[in-house]
Every structure is written in C-alpha cells, then in structure tokens.
Amino acid sequence: xxxxxxxxxxxxxxxxxxxxxxxxxxxxxxxxxxxxxxxxxxxxxxxxxxxxxxxxxxxxxxxxxxxxxxxxxxxxxxxxxxxxxxxxxxxxxxxxxxxxxxxxxxxxxxxxxxxxxxxxxxxxxxxxxxxxxxxxxxxxxxxxxxxxxxxxxxxxxxxxxxxxxxxxxxxxxxxxxxxxxxxxxxxxxxxxxxxxxxxxxxxxxxxxxxxxxxxxxxxxxxxxxxxxxxxxxxxxxxxxxxxxxxxxxxxx
Length: 252
Fold this sequence. Notes:
The protein has helices at about 50-60, 95-105, 115-125, 140-150, 170-185, 195-205, 235-250, and strands spanning about 10-20, 20-35, 40-45, 65-70, 75, 80-85, 155-160, 190-195, 205-210, 215-220. It is globular. It is an alpha/beta fold.
C-alpha cells in the first residue's frame, strides 16, 4: 500500500473572489501540511480568510490557484474523507437528535453498527437525547450532536469552523475536552478555526496565524503539548498564549 508522509498537503493555495468588475484576493500562496492524527488551529483577524480556507479544504469551494491533496489525491470536490462542522451546527430543526446524528451516514450510504453509534453517543455525552429536537437542546448539546454526525462519517480529516464560539466558558472547555477524547480514541486529524487564543493553544499541536495584509500565513507556532489534560495549567501554555497574542496584536 502506498503511504504519504502527510495526510493533507496544501501548496501555493490562493482564492480571489470576483464581484462585478472588481476582484478581492482573500488567500495567496498558502502552504502547509497536516500529518495523520495531528491537530492544527488557525487564527487571525476577522476577514483574513479562515472560513474560506476551510471551505477550500472541504472541496465546497474551488481555489483560484495552487493545490490541495488528501492522501496524495487532489481535492476537487467534497469527499467522505473530510467532514465539516460549522458554527451554526447545521442541524435540521424538524428532525430528532437520532435522525440528525445519522443523517450524513445514511446520505453517504455508510452502514453504522449499532454498537458504534451507542459508543459515540456515550463518548460525546448525548445518550438519552434521541427523541428530542434541536430546539429542546442546549447550545453544548447541539454542538455535540453536530460532532457526532460528522464523526459517524469516519473522516480522515475533521474541519471545525468556530465550533464553540457561542458557548459559555465552562461549556466551551468541556466540549474542547470531549473533542480531544474522541480525537485520541478515533485517531483522525482536525483543523479548527477560532478567534480564541487559549482555545487555539489548548487544541492545536501547531497554530497557524493568517494575516489579511498578505492574504496568507504570517507565522506558525509549534505546540506539541497541546491536548494534554492539564495543559491549561502548564507554564508553557501561558507562554505560548502570550506569544500568539503578541503576534496577533502586531497585525492590528
């Protein structure tokens, strides 16, 4: 079997939007790799192209230049190997939790053993919610349902766009821990876009900073301790959070 040193490879990636007779360059010459079972956090000011980058990686948006390869194959459209969770969760209000969780797998004709479904719900703490509808759930519960739906697709790469932004601080930290638990047990890779400095440092084994002035990556912080249960209390966590804050302040 052919193997690749990286799961995801992005080289010279660019995106320019056309509006009437004018063009707006959002991303230019973006290069990075993500290995198997690795996490990458992407931060940057509003309007720097973070969400656009995720849409390009998911295959939902076409690039203007450059290339994206997943396990050595060009990404030219949506693929079952990549799952995307948006900030708004994307749950259907007229479907129950059970129906929302299994919707993606049924659409892609993925057979999910009952024991796998039960195990995932337990990992995410949403067992016993099957008969409820999204409006009957808390924000944290809706987010976990969205995560469960994405993870049932058994993605090699999970993309998360500000997934915990609308939640209070304690719920946010609990869901970060839930994400790391399933990350450890299910061995996928993930990329998370966030405005939260501490979240980026806690979750991303590397942290990429996008700068709208160059429409690309300003810098990358190596953060190998990310994901350790007690990392929030570690001196290195505070040192790297400060370094990231300073990097972002330099762009304002």
